[in-house]
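To: structure desk
From: M.T.
Subject: fold request, one chain
Message: Could you run this one when you get a chance? Sequence is below, nothing fancy, just the single chain.
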Amino acid sequence: MKISSNLITAVLTIVLGALLIIFKGFILNIAMTIVGVGLIVWAVIDALDKKWTPAIIKGVAGVLLIVLGWLITGIILYVLAGLLLVYAVYQIYLLVTAKKKKWELFVQPVLFALIAILFFLQGFGWAFVVAGIILVIQGILALIACFK
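Reply: Done. Structure tokens follow.
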């Protein structure tokens, strides 16, 4: 069986939803730390290759992500929510203006819009749990669509 990008996306959506349910908002801090450590490792590799400028930039960025990840996380969450909401509205617009209208095609953009709104309400821990549940449902629907 050939693994399609839709199948991979569906599985990753389910995993992301589960992580949001389990770790709530803390998942973003974990992600920032992982990216920070990755940048520091990449900086060391660049330094070993005597690429000093990229090594310094990546090293400083990695340290800043680890140290200030909590601050950056809030900003990134609002940016992500805004982009997700714009994408959802655009997808709904495309579906409304399309000649063929199927209700099941509206599920994904409406779920994206709900997730974006919940991310704007990030101060509430339940927003991450609800967003996780929505992502798991969306992933399951996408997984079912892969096997139709």
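Reply (cont.): The chain is about 85% helix and 0% strand. Let me know if you need anything else for the meeting.
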